[in-house]
Design goal:
- This protein is mainly α.
- It contains five helices and no strands.
- The protein has one domain: Up-down Bundle (Four Helix Bundle (Hemerythrin (Met), subunit A)).
- α1 runs antiparallel to α2, α1 packs antiparallel against α5 and α4 packs across α5.
- The longest helix has about 40 residues.
- The protein is elongated.
- The protein starts with a helix and ends with a helix.
C-alpha cells in the first residue's frame, strides 16, 4: 500500500504538468482565434479539444484515486457526475476530500462541456459558451492544482506514516 500511494502521488504531479499544458494550449488557441479571421474555426476547434482534454485529464486522476485509494469507481449512467461529487467527500479512515466543493462546482462546467464536445459536431459549438469557460479556466485550474497537490502530499504523508507504523 505504501508504494502504491507514493506512485499515485507521483502520477498526480506528472499529470498536473500535462494539465498545465492543456490550459496553456486552450488559452493560446483562443487568443489566436480572435485574430485568425477566416481560419478562426480551426482555432475554436483546438480550444474545444483542449478544454475537453483538461477535464478528461482531471477525471482520469479522479478515477485513479477512486480505484487505488477508495477501491471503488462509480458505475451507472451518471458515473461522471458521481465521481466528481465523490471527490469532494472525505472517506472516513481512508482519505480527506480530494477537491473542495467550489472546485467541483467550477469543474462541473468543464464536465458538461466535455460531454457536449463528445456529442455534437464541432461547428455546433457555441464560442460564447467557450469564452465563459476560458474566463473561468485560470481560477478553475489554480483551484484544481492546489487541491490535487495537497492530496498528493497527503498520500506521501500517509505512506510515510505506514512505514513508521511497520517498524
Amino acid at each position: 500500500m505504501i508504494d502504491r500511494y507514493q506512485r499515485l502521488a507521483e502520477r498526480l504531479r506528472i499529470e498536473l504538468a500535462d494539465l498545465e499544458r492543456e490550459v496553456q494550449r486552450a488559452q493560446t488557441s483562443w487568443d489566436t482565434a480572435s485574430r485568425a479571421g477566416a481560419a478562426q474555426d480551426a482555432y475554436i476547434d483546438s480550444v474545444a479539444l483542449n478544454l475537453h482534454g483538461f477535464y478528461s485529464g482531471a477525471e482520469r486522476l479522479f478515477e485513479l484515486i477512486a480505484a487505488q485509494v477508495d477501491e471503488e469507481i462509480p458505475g451507472g449512467e451518471a458515473w461522471h457526475r458521481e465521481l466528481l461529487d465523490r471527490m469532494t467527500q472525505a472517506v472516513p479512515e481512508v482519505r480527506p476530500g480530494v477537491i473542495r466543493p467550489e472546485t467541483a462546482v467550477a469543474l462541473d462546467e468543464f464536465r458538461k462541456f466535455r460531454h457536449l464536445v463528445r456529442n455534437v459536431y464541432t461547428f455546433n459549438l457555441n464560442p460564447a459558451k467557450m469564452k465563459n469557460l476560458l474566463s473561468a479556466l485560470p481560477d478553475s485550474w489554480r483551484s484544481l492544482k492546489e487541491d490535487l497537490t495537497a492530496f498528493a502530499s497527503f498520500l506521501v504523508q500517509i505512506s510515510h506514516s505506514d512505514e513508521t507504523a511497520d517498524e
